[in-house]
Amino acid sequence: MKPLAFAARSLRREFRHAELAMLAAALVLAVAALTAVATLANRVERTIVASAAELIGGDLGIAAGRALPPALIEAAQQRGLATTQVADFPSVVFAGEASRLADIRATDAAFPLRGVLAVRDAHGAEQIVHAPAPGSVYAEPAVLAALALKVGDRLQIGGRDLVVEGEITRAPDSANLFRLAPRVLMNLADAESIGLLAAGSRARHRLLVAGDERTVADFSAAIKSTLPAGAEITTVEDAQQNLRGAFERGGSFLRLAALLAALLSGVAIALAAQRFARRKREEVALLRCLGARRGEILLALLLELGLLALPACVLGVLVGLALQQIVFVLAGDLLPGTTPSIPLEPSFAAFAVGAAVLFGFALPPLLRLRDVEPLRVFRRDPDPRAGRFDALYLLPVVVAGALIASGAGDAQLALTLALGFAGVALLTLVLGLILLRFVRSAGARLPAALRFGLANLARRRTLSLLQAGALALSLTAFAVLAVIGPSLLASWRAELPADTPNYFLINLQTGQRTAMQQRLSTLGAQNINVLPLAVGKLVAINGKTPKAEDFADRRAANWINGEVRVSWSVDLPPANRLLQGRWFDPAADKPQLSIDQMWVDMFGMKLGDTMTLRVGERDIDAVVTSIRGVRWDSFRANFFLMLDARTGDALAHSYIASFHLPAATPLASLSRDFPNVSLIDLNQILDRVREIVGRVSRAVVWVLGFSLAAGLLVLLAALAATADERRFEAALLRTLGAHSSQLSAAVLGEFAALGIVAGGIAALGSAAIGTALARRVFHFASYLPPFAALLAVVFAAAVLVALAGWLATRRIARAAPITVLRRG
Amino acid sequence: MDVRAADCCAAAGVAAGDKFVLKTTNNKTRKFFSMSEEIAIEIGNEAIGADKVSKTVDGPDGRLTILEDVSFRVARGDSLAIVGASGSGKTTLLGLLAGLDRPSAGSIVLAGEKLDALDEEARAHLRRRRVGFVFQNFHLLPALNAEENVMLPLELDGRADARERAGDALARVGLAARRHHYPAQLSGGEQQRVALARAFVHAPEILFADEPTGNLDQRTGAVVGDLLFALNREHGTTLVLVTHDANLAARCARRLGLIAGRIADAATA
């Protein structure tokens, strides 16, 4: 026997029959879903990164306290990257007698490389522009209002007269919350010639580069070792905390959908493989009888599986790539602007996962065929019951676990799903056993046809439980996607309601607080939230001065070298949740500190650690009493560090306010009446986040289609699992004179019962999984599963399963009994 | 024939299964088609030998004896019918003789090989080369068509001419036109003829047939029976047949009756 040739022939011949086609279809579907979703997620992510790039004005930034060496700029240009230089520094701007501290940004003509800089000219017309020409500036409305200027007037920076050529309406990086003052944009050459960038100036220099992804990534990797001291690379991913939060959640949704589709396909594969193996049993016995060796048969089976996996996985990848391209084209607005290339890694990963799913789910029943005795050709003995625990069946559990762990990319998501599905399987087993016992004892009082149907379930106990388990698991996955998914998405959208703060005010002084609150109320502002803010410096952690080089996380350097901002509040602010420890004890007499999880990741801090902060002249040794998870995409004023109110109130501080006003509200008077206060417009970034939510929601809906197909496949596989036996029984009943209506009633009764049990468990399971996902993964403040829709799932499951069962067996009832009986 | 003839065969190095011509002292030539049991044993030319074979199984009501102390010999080219009532142990004996199962006690020689000295893999190898089977319920693989079913033993042996030989074998049983039909598209008689083609396609030395006509009507059964014996003659195969069919049993050279697992009589026709 030549196992490879034999396997190839077997595959070719058996492909005409349902089981192998089902295995192949399930595999194609699993790989297609994984490929499409992973590729789509990757492309969506890169588009989102690209939109974040628009917000900072380039794809990559290199920031330093001094002007960056020309060699670095040349290196970027040699690689074909576009470059622009930016220098930010505070300076007082004069207009006649009036003056105003402004955040000056000096740039060259290429700025911005990404995103849009728009100004309103003297005629009130908005124009898309690049950096101002030498001798001119663009200024934000707050500057013009404070200095009573209009476009065309002159202002003075560093003693030089410059013409205001435009009022900035849109600019990259305009939503930086901790900018000192409103912005004035000037030409880099002017700033240099005035001497504003001379040694000793407080300017922060940045080189922004832009180009195709790979070149940017290569450039970033190449320069890492040659960066001047104090310089650091900022990528767009870590530029915008709130965008990142939004994207992480979006990614979780997509991964969830893909994972469930793959798991569903896994169940379909397992069922098809069971049936395939059952049929193979007779063949293996015959082959053994005809002299094939055990090892040869096993090898041929494995090779057959391999020969099936290879083209099915390739086809799956191709289908997946085609489908994601269709989604990409159809949902054209999903990814406006740049069209990122198709990444290959997700395809390879999906291919590998597909093969793992096939072997993991299909091997156990096939490997058991090695135990088939050749004597089976004479006597069709019932299969020996496995008296011992068969470790082989751990394989699909391990594969499913590994799939969840690797696909989820998030421990909480993985754990929630794994526990949820294990719970559903266990519940099905327990409930199924109870119900089967009930059917056995109470079945006698039921009408004959229904009794026969239900007796079928009880008689095929193991198969019924397997079928119910597969149905319950697939319906759960389906309900999570179809019902829980959209309701989670709705909750996500509800997290950014219409009155989400879209403006921030900073540098509000204690004396101005009440007046400002009144003014905002008059303007019709909603959701006003005012928090104290003190600016200090990180001095020590547990008595030791932190050094940037001691921490792997490069974000740590920002906090060690830069300023830290702290706030305080009596109560835990909204959009914050406690992960560890307790909120402040008002009775405690020592300073207490609450830190965001990011500080745990960055500095390895834990409860009970002491952090020394210097605010003004004072050093505070505060003990970490709680660790918080902050929802950075809530658009409220949030802080990494919060002190207890008693300690905080004693520090020199100003206030920061967030509020919502319709975007078109004129706010010039606010800047004029409170000249020290900076107004920050968050509308642009808020729009971005809403856009991401919208895009991801639409992408998830598309992915749902895969899972729907996978779910149907599982249903078919589950029905097919008993089809052979059912066909024979139906023929026998027909021979004994049963009406087709009696056959239908039996089938409908059996399948409706199966559907109700599986649907009920799925509804419960998906509600539990949904609630856990909302709390543990997506961190929604409140979430209630849509019970009415879940009830509909139970009903739909009963109808669908019964209908599918009826349709599948209708053919059987129509066939002449003799042909079925003859086939045996 | 006497013991000296056996000595001659042994001295001349006549191996089991070889065709040989023996010249007697008066120079008359005699060709051996069938040998008496004793001589076959002495010259190692037996096809099958069972020695005190017993089989017991553990059932729900304790230990059950299916076969007890069964001993007999079958010489090459001979034909033996195992007869007996249902449950007398016929099929169990057939399974043991074919090396599909191991006896609880006793030993079996198949094609000159002692089965208890062989492991399952070696027994499989022996079956592949030298044994053919015909079953009561045909055992054709439903996923394969007639030709592919017949090709199976040749494919297991890695034969390149499998299709060609399968075609010939099907033609021999009169089913050349149905070669691409699936088992479900064939009648019972046709299915058994395909099974006969499969059994003989690799020219086995020994053929085991388990109720080959048991699932067929009388007329079809007779046709299949004729075909079975015709093929047996053509190939010079040793035949062991389990049957209820008295007519079929009568066509065998010898019959072995089983009653409740023990040999009732060992008659040579």
Describe this protein's structure.
The complex is a heterodimer of chains A (824) and B (269). Chain A is of the alpha+beta class and 824 residues long. Chain A is built from 23 helices and 21 strands. Chain A has a six-stranded mixed barrel. In chain A, a hairpin with a 5-residue loop joins strand 4 (117-120) and strand 5 (126-129). In chain A, helix 2 (18-56) packs across helix 8 (294-330). Chain B is an alpha/beta fold. In chain B, the strands form three sheets. Chain B has a six-stranded mixed sheet. The radius of gyration of chain B is 19 Å and the shape is globular. The two termini of chain B are 19 Å apart. The chains are: A alpha+beta (824), B alpha/beta (269).
Strand content of chain A: 15-25%
How far is it from the N-terminal to the C-terminal residue of chain B, by CA?
A: 19 Å
Shape by Cα distribution of chain A: elongated
Main sheet: strand order of chain B: 8-9-10-5-11-12
Instruction: Give the SSE string of chain B.
Output: HEEHEEEHEEHEHHHEHEHEE
Q: What is the number of helices of chain B?
A: 9
Overall SS class of chain B: alpha/beta
Helix content of chain B: 25-40%
Count of β-strands of chain B? 12
